[in-house]
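hi! just following up on the protien thing from before. the input was this:
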Amino acid sequence: MRPLAVVAALLLAPGALPAQEDLEGLRASVIQVFVVSQPPDYSLPWQRPPPQRSTGTAFFIGERTLLTNAHVVSDARNLLVKRADNPERVAARVLFAGHDCDLAAITVDDPAFFEGMAPLAFGGLPALRSTVVAVGYPVGGTRISITQGVVSRIEVQTYSHSRGDQHLAVQIDAAINPGNSGGPVLQDGKVVGVAFQMQAAGQNIGYMIPMPVVDHFLKDIADRRYDGYPELGVYEAKLENAGLRDYLGVPKGASGVVVLKPMPYASCEGLLRRNDVLHAIDGIPILDDGTIQLGGEFFGFEYVVENKQVGESVKLQVRRDGEVFEVDVPLRRWGARMPFSWRFDADPEFLLTGGYLFAPLTLNYLARRGSEELLYYLQNWYPVLAGPHEKREQLVVLCGVLRHRSTAYRTYNNQIVASVDGAVPRDFREFVTLLDGAGSDKVRIEFDGVNVPPLVLDRARIREAHAEICRQYGIPQDRHVAEAR
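and the predicted 3d structure came back as:
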């Protein structure tokens, strides 16, 4: 059964207490994870903060593979795992990490680690008010922990790991504490979810990643590569206003949403236009508030794309200039290099030249050095601000100026680069190339916004001051540029 059908059927299933799980049988297959991680500091991109220690849970799914959360293993410098029936900690490594869905597959190279270990079986989506059991290694002890709870809510939510991706999540009142992350949630002896986050503002509010999301991840990595989720890329408005419906020629009884902008670098680019009306997706009617009905629940219409793999397609029923037709949209990942979510397992890109610090605009950067204006740019550049011929895959920011006699009276801070000697950089790599390859002794950098004067860099003064600035501020390297894709 396809994930959408599973959702529709099981949301209506009656709640029932599961049979008593054979918890002793889990002792070999539910694994404790020990991590030493070192996330980068985007405010000082040339240095690393002190390492951090944390723990989590994983479980055996077969073929020498353990399933856990991506946030458990992200930015790991050292990764160890331990069985409940063996005191030895064994080195592990990450096979695949889906930071958008907070799932990861890890393995141990020593095959002896998996001896006597039985893979846990997968179930479906639990019904509301039904009972589940969370198994893991939360803080407060060293032995395996089992807690029981009730499914209280099933809806699309923002996953806190990436801070920008939304997927189906199941709320339960079983305790999900640090260390539980990555552990299985069981019903009738089968895995129905993966514990992954909690609601700090409430009491006994935990969340698990349900099987439709787990299935998507496992199908994705079946070809030994993780592609992630495709993006339809439609910026739309509701069709609840009668005047707007009349203007677009939407007849009475028809429902849908109006396309405000098909975003560049997304699946719908070149296939949809402004003022197109989307009436249905894969044959499911889109309601005027942008939702679709599955069983007795309502989800945003993008949820259909949520259940597709990169390379598949989705069928849209479109009204354009009074004509109704269908469009097959081949689905691909977000193509721009400026994601709306947090980045992991990568060193921050930056360039320091003569005391001027440049970096690409990312959510990671905003968390340390950002501003409301930059946040607006990140959230709205592709949906709203970028024109139809805009081809910037990344926005480059002049972060700030290190104080030195050569940079006196320069107060640039968080300014977005518009051009280098008249050329618009497509991404950060091209910006560095333009800066390094400028043919004259003076390089002019223009910025977005009318109230920001251009920056004119004197190459001779930069060469004279650069080494001294790096020594003064203890900067071991003046750049990191990611390899070309």
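The radius of gyration is 25 Å.
The CA atoms of residues 217 and 395 lie 30 Å apart.
cheers
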